[in-house]
Design brief:
The chain is mostly helical. The chain is built from eleven helices and no strands. Helix content is 63%, strand content 0%.
Length: 207
């Protein structure tokens, strides 16, 4: 059970910040990541209050910029007065490191089980959401599916294919399900494009 005072603070002060981000990173994403991280956390010896904080802060640095958002989010966590009041220095260090370590492009393993859990929770989404978020991130008013599809497809192959750069640390049920579904879809490029077009035509449901 998450501490009630902590949950109230996060819901009122941190989660609303996500509504200012691009559609690929707005509220639905962070809520899904929180849910997955807490579910995965039940299988490991972790403090779920800490896991909740890590999940809430993992992408919040995007309010400043993308390239170093993981470092910005970690600093926001460390500097937050409520977090400083609620957790000790050792716990804050673990949480901030986990936020820093969550990026899918990171070449090294997360420094703790907390970092491994948030990494899995952040990237192991259902296939349709993976595709929708890639489309949403590139979509701008006036652009058609054909304008953005090639870039979306190249990104998804580069990141999520069987030879993609994404690293798997825990092989959770979420990761296994996502990989099986995406790998199967990617075997037929024509069918995958049709699948992506169907999602594009219904993007509003993913915002």
């Amino acid at each position: 059970m998450i501490n009630k005072e902590l949950k109230t603070y996060i819901e009122n002060n941190i989660l609303p910040l996500y509504q200012t981000l691009d559609y690929a990173h707005r509220g639905n994403h962070v809520f899904d990541v929180i849910k997955r991280a807490l579910d995965i956390g039940h299988d490991y010896n972790v403090d779920l209050n800490m896991m909740y904080v890590i999940s809430a802060f993992h992408d919040v640095g995007l309010i400043v910029e993308r390239k170093t958002h993981h470092l910005i989010g970690a600093k926001m966590l460390r500097d937050d007065p409520f977090i400083q009041k609620t957790f000790n220095a050792s716990e804050i260090k673990i949480m901030s490191e986990a936020v820093e370590d969550h990026r899918a492009s990171s070449k090294s393993a997360p420094r703790s089980i907390y970092g491994m859990i948030i990494s899995e929770a952040d990237r192991a989404e259902p296939a349709d959401i993976v595709v929708a978020r890639a489309l949403l991130y590139r979509f701008r008013e006036g652009l058609t599916f054909e304008n953005i599809y090639n870039d979306v497809y190249a990104h998804l192959i580069d990141k999520y294919s069987e030879t993609g750069y994404i690293k798997v640390w825990l092989e959770t049920k979420y990761m296994k399900a996502m990989q099986e579904e995406l790998w199967s879809l990617m075997k037929d490029e024509k069918a995958f494009k049709a699948y992506a077009l169907e999602i594009f035509n219904n993007l509003d449901r993913y915002k």
